[in-house]
Amino acid sequence: MTTTVIIGGVAGGMSTAARLRRRDEDMEIIVFEASENVSFANCGLPYYVSRTIESRDALLLQTPASLKARLNLDVFVSHRVTAIDPAAKNVTVRNEVTGEERTRDYDFLVLSPGATPFLPPIPGIERALTLRTVEDVDVISEAVRADGVASAAIIGGGFIGLELAENLHKMGIATTIVERSPQILAPLDEEMAVLVQDRLEAAGVKVLTRADTKKISDSSLEVVLDDGSSVTVDADIVVAAIGVRPASELAKAAGLAVGERGGIKVDRAQRTSNPAIFALGDAAEKVDAVSGEDSLVPLAQTANRHGRMVADIITGRDCQAQLTLGTAIVGVLGLAAGSVGWNERRARAAGKNIRVIHVHPVNHAGYYPGATQLHLKLVVDAKTDAILGAQAVGENGVDKRIDVIATAMRAGLKGSDLADLELAYAPQFGSAKDPINFLGFVDDNALNGEELVQWHQLEDLVARDNTVLIDVRSAGEYARGDIPGSINVDVDELRDWLNDGGRQQLEGKDVIVHCQVGLRGHIAAAILAGYGIKAANLTGGYLTWAAGMRARKP
Amino acid sequence: MTTTVIIGGVAGGMSTAARLRRRDEDMEIIVFEASENVSFANCGLPYYVSRTIESRDALLLQTPASLKARLNLDVFVSHRVTAIDPAAKNVTVRNEVTGEERTRDYDFLVLSPGATPFLPPIPGIERALTLRTVEDVDVISEAVRADGVASAAIIGGGFIGLELAENLHKMGIATTIVERSPQILAPLDEEMAVLVQDRLEAAGVKVLTRADTKKISDSSLEVVLDDGSSVTVDADIVVAAIGVRPASELAKAAGLAVGERGGIKVDRAQRTSNPAIFALGDAAEKVDAVSGEDSLVPLAQTANRHGRMVADIITGRDCQAQLTLGTAIVGVLGLAAGSVGWNERRARAAGKNIRVIHVHPVNHAGYYPGATQLHLKLVVDAKTDAILGAQAVGENGVDKRIDVIATAMRAGLKGSDLADLELAYAPQFGSAKDPINFLGFVDDNALNGEELVQWHQLEDLVARDNTVLIDVRSAGEYARGDIPGSINVDVDELRDWLNDGGRQQLEGKDVIVHCQVGLRGHIAAAILAGYGIKAANLTGGYLTWAAGMRARKP
């Protein structure tokens, strides 16, 4: 009889185990999980803190008993594997309750131990709670309900930090997010992330960016901002949600290859440097779909998909892991923020020649009640038009647009192909021209010669003597806020203005147009082209520019 | 100067006009619209009847004046083109207000006159209202608010019929849908459409299928059911929403080629048989993406996309229309029903060798509050695994899944590729294994040998002496409703049962397993395979079977 031992009984490990059984009724399948629970709803933990998820049982999707009954799996919780002997093909496992140790032989070994929260070496860090397991959420749940708890500081403005902030805020706890980098939500670019920060701040959650936590005291944090000033943040509770590190120590100790970023090295079949040992989930390296390079992407759904595949391979099927897009989403205070692939920051840092598009349409037909604004960003290769990545922020429809683009990326569609996707339209669900189509329209226009300017390029461009920046919004919009250096000519009066001497005024100049979101700017650029004047359009318009300015304000 | 004349100023025509101007500042662009409004929100009309869309102005997206100011278009409403002279390259147009006629020369002519509601030759049909224009909605709005109006009959259970039913029902009007065919919502298969019918009936909307309207009287309809019985339907208001016919008379009279179904024939550049004349929108034929055959697909978003393309071609760009998937969605009483590509009925009628998959997962993580059930159906080519079509019904997340599959179809992904799409997951938005992934898992398993049985094949199969149908749900589920001829063995007790003599009982038999939705059935089939017993699984389980039975009940 073949024996497969699986280390880790959550997303990746449990997917492997369940699929193995469905593929092989006779295999011995043993799962060792170091924590007290298997198959728990990792991504639901923050919502149990505030009891948005009311029942703790709802987090526990399976138990060793239910897994035995249905799938004949031998699942051991509170069992920590302490050593792997690849030569002898066995593992040493310790019962965390009794302290008892034993070895267990395997034919195949699957490593899915996950990751551990990163704790920076700050004085007082021992006060910081982390959130990774059901045990962790029990600790946090009790801590936030203790007498006199009125404030919380969350170190780290990533997905889990934001989810926790929402839940603590919902409980009436004064919450501050302390983020060391210039923005929250690293997968997004700054002018997109600031839209989420706006929402947090509007709700009363404090957000400090470029903020370095120097010390954790009894009921506060000492934080230094990048101007050198110090801030004291009230913090009856401190949670560290800075990120995770792959739990690869065991693999390393067993002599398995580990990558530069600390993830267990695997091939496209999730095989480690030892052919009988597989690794997957947060502990293993992934291959980035855009660059083909190794990366770490600690996401549950990737772990689940890879688990299924590892089971297929162990049971004799020949298959390969898909490259990883890093598709992700987070909900915060009624807003959703999603991303797939690379952002602009990463693409520029890698020296890629890119085209970047911002649009801000409503999520469904504007004439139907309840439409809300979407903010979409697309990054494509300037020459090949390959989609490198996308981001979306909005109250509704973010997940749909990210999923459509993730599907398009997987299938190799180009940016301009988005123009002609045939998406479902009824007034409650979309528009005759879906926001996705709009991204494609703008990309198609740019691919065919329309010049786009980015919000972060504007200051330099406008500073040049030869540049004219025309704001083609209405006089009323202009009065409510304008970009320094712009002149105002309403798009509906642009032809008259050009005929009335404006044309001469623009001769020999570098002309940039902008409106509120980009559409009227596009029309204005087309009108100007008809007058022989080449004009660039500020993509995303005033809205994106203003967001960028907020993101960069000191 | 080049002149383009456009007949029809709604979706297709107005998209053409706007794009033409953005591509050519100098072209003369003339739009003749027979109704009193251009660029109105066609798909919003049903919602104005109940004032869900409160303001009539919200339906009127543009006016001739606004289009003149921004795009320098010459738009004439209440102007009906009465003749085209392709040799002289002119049209004759009548001002519907003054009765005045004139001719107008063109270099390019674009036909986007839309379609006209079909009115069957029934006695009293002159009482039936239709819904296509703003004028129509004004008439219906007034009619439903007249004193003493308490009941309405809608002839036709398609998209517009259902949307109207929702809105009339919302106003407290006793509403009956009278549909001649065996089911409402022709794009769906019967067992999917019945889920929508369930919702209508639960809300108190009457639905008569296989119901032929024989006569419309003063305040009722006389309807004959397929058992020959007659029913009188109260109908202070009668609306005919049976479907539309392409408005191709003008094209036909001008000698342009018209297809068998009455649509104007066009090539992949939307060119009619006359190279200076283009046609698009509901009046023109489309090319079906699955079969490559001519079809009629009267959908706003196709018209919009083709409008953009026609403008590109007229202004010198070389491009081709994408094949049409017919992606569509409708919202009814909190439920959404969507489809893309072909349904099972159509595929079987065309003699295709298909594989059909039903799944019924929740729209997002079940542990997060508010998850609702989705019903998804996938039709793939049994051999090539090409996706032929998909359907979805549910309260939430229907549009997203249909759009993802529409994107996958456009890009040529296979059914089993859906297993590995990397979609955005957070508990409010999806699951670590998204419903789309589930479709792919089931397809992948079936592609690799797992046999699936369809609900409509079950009766014949069970009638055979040699078949054993095992319901692997719990005893409690079985007691609440079972499939005739099934025996009950809980999946969690299946191994014991097999070891206890069950194995011998099944030897040499054709075994079919089923559960509630298909997942436990899949596990049971895997267990049986381990015991050397090949078993087929009822896809979609009891839920799909029961829906099919409801759909077919006399």
TrEMBL record, chains A, B:
GO terms for molecular function: oxidoreductase activity. SMART domains: RHOD. Keywords: FAD, Flavoprotein, Oxidoreductase, Redox-active center. Residues 463-554 form the Rhodanese domain. Its cofactor is FAD. Belongs to the class-III pyridine nucleotide-disulfide oxidoreductase family. PANTHER family: NAD(P)H SULFUR OXIDOREDUCTASE (COA-DEPENDENT), PYRIDINE NUCLEOTIDE-DISULFIDE OXIDOREDUCTASE DOMAIN-CONTAINING. This is CoA-disulfide reductase.
